């Protein structure tokens, strides 16, 4: 497998029961499937010399490079913030579900892992910043008020109105 950044050969390494392709000859980037990444993203998960070495590499991410091509699917990967870390950008192949992490990004993900409460607050912050979401929320509120009003004015049509007197 060729590294999507520098086209050097990546070698498969064992990160404590998790197989990861590492660009050992070049950029030290990691190409990993989403299931494997889910196992490695939490601190204290996976133990091996290869993992420990990867966690020590300094973070290097060229913000000026173009989109990467997935070495498995040969389609452009999508560059975005990692789901559980609002500080680290990753490259993801939406077809095969694999990720490319630049050197040091796995360590950053592990250090900045958000708690469930932080994830919820971050998601709410993103939604609040979205004009489309705000419009939908206002529409839902109006619909709920309309439904409540209809239920109030048609309460005498329900059998329970006559049984309880409400």
Describe it for me?
The chain is an alpha+beta fold and 166 residues long. The chain has two domains: 101 residues, no CATH class; 49 residues. 39% of the residues lie in helices and 14% in strands. Strands 1-2-3-6-5-4 form a six-stranded antiparallel sheet. A hairpin with a 7-residue loop joins strand 4 and strand 5. The longest helix is centred in the C-terminal third of the chain and has 23 residues. It starts with 10 loop residues before the first strand and ends with a helix. The model has no long low-confidence stretch (mean pLDDT 81).
**What proportion of the residues is helical, as a percent range?**
25-40%
What would the average pLDDT be, to the nearest integer? 81
Alpha-carbon Rg, integer: 24 Å
What are the segments in which pLDDT stays under 50 over at least 5 consecutive residues?
Answer: none
Q: Kindly, what is the distance between the CA atoms of the first and last residues, rounded to a whole number of angstroms?
A: 71 Å
Q: Give the topology string: H per helix, E per strand.
A: EEEHHEEEHHHH
Largest beta-sheet details? 6 strands, antiparallel
* Total domain count: 2
Give the CA-based shape. elongated
Number of strands: 6
Strand order of the largest sheet: 1-2-3-6-5-4
Report the portion of residues in β strands: 5-15%
How many helices? The count is 6
Structural class by helix and strand composition: alpha+beta
Descriptive tags:
166 residues; alpha+beta; elongated; 2 domains; six-stranded antiparallel beta sheet; 6 helices
């Amino acid at each position: 497998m060729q590294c999507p950044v520098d086209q050097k050969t990546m070698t498969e390494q064992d990160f404590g029961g998790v197989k990861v392709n590492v660009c050992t000859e070049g950029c030290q980037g990691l190409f990993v499937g989403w299931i494997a990444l889910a196992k490695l993203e939490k601190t204290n998960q996976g133990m091996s010399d290869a993992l420990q070495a990867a966690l020590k590499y300094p973070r290097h991410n060229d913000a000026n490079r173009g989109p990467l091509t997935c070495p498995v699917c040969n389609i452009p990967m999508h560059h975005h913030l990692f789901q559980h870390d609002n500080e680290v950008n990753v490259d993801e192949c939406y077809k095969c579900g694999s990720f490319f992490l630049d050197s040091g990004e796995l360590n950053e993900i592990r250090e900045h892992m958000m708690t469930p409460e932080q994830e919820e607050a971050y998601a709410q912050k993103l939604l609040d910043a979205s004009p489309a979401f705000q419009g939908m929320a206002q529409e839902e509120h109006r619909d709920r008020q309309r439904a409540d009003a209809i239920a109030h004015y048609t309460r005498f049509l329900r059998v329970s109105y006559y049984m309880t007197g409400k």
